[in-house]
Design goal:
The complex is a heterodimer of chains A (281) and B (273).
Chain A: H1 2-23, H2 28-53, H3 62-93, H4 97-102, H5 107-136, H6 146-173, H7 178-192, H8 204-211, H9 214-227, H10 240-272
Helix pairs in contact in A: 1-5, 2-3, 2-5, 3-5, 3-6, 3-7, 3-9, 5-6, 6-7, 6-9, 6-10, 9-10
Chain B: H1 2-25, H2 27-50, H3 55-79, H4 81-88, H5 91-96, H6 101-131, H7 140-165, H8 170-178, H9 181-186, H10 198-204, H11 208-220, H12 222-228, H13 233-264
Helix pairs in contact in B: 1-6, 2-3, 2-6, 3-6, 3-7, 6-7, 7-11, 7-13, 11-12, 11-13
The chains are: A mainly alpha (281), B mainly alpha (273).
Chain lengths: 281, 273
């Protein structure tokens, strides 16, 4: 019971601190502009690539699928790599990870809280980008399966947070690569999960790897929920329930792996004196 | 005078040295620095393939990916560098050193430029081999001239931003972050900038990579770029030379102005803000 209370306190402290770090560096108005410009610019790159090359431009049937995949991928960047970045940021830049560890709260819960703040920031970006797509890019989203959308969103976000904690555990143990580990994983997932193109284009070994990664199924479920159809023919045989089952399984795996491996990483970090490491990177 | 010149040159070499040596000291970084941009570049190559683009467009993406290495270096290791130095407590040491601040920035630029060239060359080489991208340079000297002038103008901009960022705390980090995707978009890193329209491209030309990329693409893929070129290569070369001179001049003036302002407002030693 005490551990649960400490985990909850850690979660609350992490979420509050995370939100402050993300948002209070400037005026709310400038923060709002910042939140709009970055994700919309990312999507507009795809728009212009389509306009320059694709037959039919934005009417190309692939475009809504690519738009949706890229938009929801913002969660992967923010949540997955954001949590591991928190370790690097707190330890190297603010020098306060050791104080978090000393406080009567749970480090695991604290990092989940930091993830919650990142999720909130990402949600703002995703909603703005979706609205932009519907208003200006003629992307027609329909809420045909609200149950599928809600379940996929919840399971996917939970999985991202737990896998983010797993990466945070890795970050605890490394010195000179901590700032890039999240970005490299997120970049790899963008390529391998077919966020912006059909998996069939990838060479067979990479395609197989992509089919083994949870975000592939997450993005496919979201596409089915909001566009009525998926992108990857390889997954067409799976029913919605099967997709959700795979997502639920991968989330449970994320919980188990992150709990076990993060605790092990934490123990090693304490033993080796890594919690207050300052490498100046 | 001789002493001043010698100190200037020694500062340039001294500040460039750790950046150049740093690349080889942590060898795994070279792999990451080539591998990481390639992930993004590969995704864009596959997007082009998915929509049936000619193979030259994959070349656009690879060239853009390589040039991103320079932009990232300018943002994070030039513009934000004095912010990092402030955070780690080194900035005071720079300011009390009996040398020119421009020499420090120039050293940072030269070291960063050399190190980044290794990464950019790696991205082009691996990308070209991996995706079998046609790369044929018709006018080698012109190509090299455009490339070098782009870098001089770009690092001049980096030096200018560096002096502006001297004032800021966490805003510096977030602004560098903000200057990523929007600049990738407006400078046409992954598609010809002409697609944005002439006037938008003209405004975006304040970032030298916009003109540099367009000119390099024209020299690599002259036939395809006939439809997409923004300005003639010669005009872009002239504009890049003008930008280089302008940015270096503004960096010199800006550094004095912002240092004085930061000194008066007590921001030079402010940490964690």
């Amino acid at each position: 019971m005490r551990r649960l209370r400490e985990a909850w306190q850690g979660f609350k402290a992490g979420a509050w601190l995370g939100w402050q770090i993300e948002s209070n560096w400037t005026e709310p108005f400038l923060f709002a502009i910042y939140s709009v410009i970055k994700p919309v610019a990312g999507v507009l790159i795809l728009v212009f690539m389509y306009l320059v090359v694709a037959q039919g431009g934005l009417e190309n049937p692939l475009f809504p699928q690519v738009f949706l995949g890229t938009t929801f991928y913002l969660y992967v960047v923010n949540v997955l790599s954001g949590i591991s970045w928190s370790v690097h940021d707190d330890r190297e830049h603010y020098g306060m990870l050791k104080y978090v560890y000393m406080a009567p709260l749970h480090l695991y819960g604290y990092l989940l809280g930091r993830g919650a703040a990142k999720t909130l920031v990402a949600t703002i970006s995703v909603l703005i980008t979706l609205a932009f797509g519907m208003a200006f890019l003629r992307v027609r989203l329909s809420l045909g399966s609200p149950g599928l959308l809600a379940a996929a969103l919840m399971l996917g976000l939970a999985a991202l947070a737990f896998y983010g904690i797993l990466l945070a555990g890795v970050s605890l143990l490394i010195a000179r690569h901590g700032w890039m580990v999240g970005d490299v994983v997120a970049g790899g997932l963008y390529l391998l999960c077919g966020a912006a193109f059909p998996l069939a284009l990838l060479p067979a070994p990479f395609r197989a790897l992509g089919l083994g990664l949870p975000p592939t199924y997450w993005l496919e479920a979201l596409r089915r929920a909001l566009l009525g159809a998926g992108l990857h023919p390889e997954l067409a045989a799976l029913s919605d329930a099967q997709l959700l089952l795979i997502l639920a399984g991968s989330t449970l795996l994320g919980v188990a792996l992150s709990a076990g491996l993060f605790r092990a990483a934490e123990r090693i970090a304490v033993r080796r004196g890594l919690l207050d490491m300052q490498t100046m990177y | 005078m001789t002493w001043q010149i010698r100190t200037f040159l020694r500062t340039v070499v001294g500040r460039a040295y750790p950046r150049f040596i740093g690349v080889w000291r942590e060898k795994s970084w070279v792999i990451f620095d080539v591998f990481f941009p390639l992930l993004q570049v590969s995704a864009y190559v596959y997007i082009y393939r998915a929509i049936g683009a000619p193979p030259e467009f994959a070349g656009f993406a690879v060239l853009g990916g390589a040039m991103i290495a320079y932009w990232m270096n300018v943002l994070w290791s030039m513009a934000s560098q004095l912010y990092w130095e402030k955070e780690t407590g080194n900035l005071q040491l720079y300011l009390i050193a009996p040398t020119s601040r421009m020499a420090i920035l120039l050293g940072m630029a030269l070291g960063g430029l050399t190190a980044t060239t290794v990464r950019a060359a790696g991205v082009i080489l691996v990308g070209a081999l991996l995706f079998r991208i046609p790369l044929r340079v018709g006018h080698g000297a012109l190509f090299l001239g455009v490339f070098l002038l782009t870098l001089v103008a770009l690092y001049g901009l980096g030096m200018l931003l560096s002096s502006v960022f001297l004032l800021w705390g966490r805003e510096a980090w977030h602004l560098s972050n903000l200057f990523m995707e929007p600049v990738y978009l407006f400078s046409g890193f992954y598609f010809p900038v002409r697609a944005l329209g002439f006037w938008v491209a003209l405004v975006a030309s304040v970032i030298p990579i916009t003109l540099g990329l367009d000119a390099l693409r024209q020299l690599l893929y002259p036939q395809l770029m006939e439809r997409f070129r923004f300005l003639p290569v010669e005009a872009e070369l002239g504009a890049l030379a003008a930008l280089a001179v302008l940015f270096l001049f503004l960096a010199h003036r800006g550094l004095r102005f912002f240092e004085e302002l930061a000194r008066r407002e007590g921001r030079l030693t402010l940490r964690g803000q």
